[in-house]
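Extended Data, panel c. Modelled sequence:
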Amino acid sequence: MFFSCLVSLRPDLASTLMQKYIAAIICFSVLFSLLLLEGCTAAIVATTATVASTMHDRRTTATVMDDQEIKLRARATLGNHPEISKHSRIHVTSFNRRVLIFGQTETAKLADKFAHLVSRQTKLKSVYNEVEVRPRADNLDIANDAALTTKIKGSLWQISIKGFDPTRVKISTTLGNVYLLGLVTVEEGPAIVEHVRSISGVKKVIEIFEYLEG
């Protein structure tokens, strides 16, 4: 079905999509094999979803896969350091090889130590430490944050800017604080931030966008 649809497109567009599709399959196959050897079933499922999303992404397929690897390694690092994880609730995400760590911890020293450990990864560009020293989110907080994230993602379709694709915006939420990542234009970025700030339940918006040139 995918290849049949490509035939009906302009030759140049069909060629671009075909190249991206093939690259995604190759990258997925390599990472799948590595994860399978390590027995990371959950990671394999997550990687499958990542590959499916690359068709709409402004990142290269290789960068998307790097972000997935960076995130998995960072989470593994947290799990391997109970002196941090037992006294914190830290979340990790990566976009365009930039890592965001956010959540709650008992001391700033713990968050700084984790940020340092994550920064040792060779593929990443930078680490944004947005972990707050405050009581950890409980299960109700987590459920509310998940619902808020879903609401925000759905509402972004209301933004009317030519060429804007809401699926290109990565949204993370904790205790009502909303973190925005993505590759956006100078027109899209401010519009997204303003829109998210107007949504009920949002306490604070932290913009970590990268702006496209031109």
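The longest strand covers residues 88-95. This feature is highlighted in the accompanying rendering.
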